[in-house]
Amino acid sequence: MDEATDRTRKVPPLRFDVGAGSGVAVAGFLIALAVLISRMPEALTAPTLWAEDGAVFLADAFNLGVGASLFEIYRGSLHAAQRIVASGSLVLPLEAIPHFFALVALLVPAGTAALLLSLRFEPAIPDVRVRALLAFLVVGLPYDAELHASLTNLQWHLALLACLVILAAPGRGFVKRCDYTIVGLASFTGPFGFPLLGVSALDWLLYRQRRALAFAGVAAAGALVQGVLLLTTGEVADGVATQATPGIFVRIVVEQVLLGGLIGARLTQALPGSTGVGALTALVFVGGGTLLAVAAARGGRELRLLLAFGAAILAMALAAPTTTWSVLERAESAGRYWLIPTLAYVAALVWGAPRGRPGFIRVIAVSGLLLLLPGIAVGWRHPPRVGPSLSRTAAALEGARAGTTLVIPISPDGWMMELTKR
Predict the structure, then answer these.
(1) How far is CA 89 from CA 61, 99, 108, 150, 204, in A?
(2) Where are the beta strands (DSSP E) in 14-167?
């Protein structure tokens, strides 16, 4: 993601099919998958349904049937990816479904890492070592445990993958069809059609990428549908206006992205608490903000658009969160919101670290990258999710009469899944 002297620079006319450099991508995918599994082996050895995995997506697919459940609205949005996975899982024994959900949730970030490592990002990042570093950080960043191996939060990883598909060198044939499928699926899974439309529009306006118009059309369709649903279902967050202050904004950005995103929630919780904007918070905010501004001004097409995407995700999270800003500033609060902004910031750190960048930018970038070391070490292992086995539930359903409803407790505590024998 080197500097671009011409803001209308076009991506080199390289087109990759499924066989171009596929060996590197496949190896990267398998390594990334192994890394993800190592962070919570129990996700595959002893998986359990978590939150909306069972209470919403599996329950709706089981009780309503495949056709009806695909178009069910949850929290004002369609969730196409989760609905498709839940519907497909019905061909499996009930006790095997948590394994299937966890595996699918791991495949998406592994695919994102493989895309970064592939030759499709070679025009933007010629050094394979830098691509490997970024691919590792996609799966190794000390993000919140709720994002790991969770079908519920699959949409955040899918949105990142869709953004990188837009930024990557064009594919052809099967790869091209996969690109549009990924962007379309992400656009109809939560509100991500809006930022994906924005990135595609910027790609056309600044760089005249012809395929950006096609991506914009796909994302616009999702944004239109999801926008209408959000307006008509009245999904409005409470208390945002009364809790939104400049001081809390600074603390959220620092404690969740610029610092907390690098060292993880566990180390962030160990930092001295403050009710205001302390010296450390102000220093990190100014330093990180300066780096981001320089990267946005001098970076290449891919970095600029990734930063724009991260900023859009952050803006959406703060404009319509599920809780108040005073809660969002706490470590381990709504960790899903910060994944993409943090990865965009990490990309800027990697861009700013090499020789040749301004001295003060290098100091900020190298300092930030060094902070990742303790963050990754402390936050590597995610605690396993504890929940009941579905073997007894499967046996109970097998012997139940049609119309019988079973209420099954799932993880986390307090969540229930209701399944009705059809």
Answers:
(1) 9, 10, 17, 15, 39
(2) none
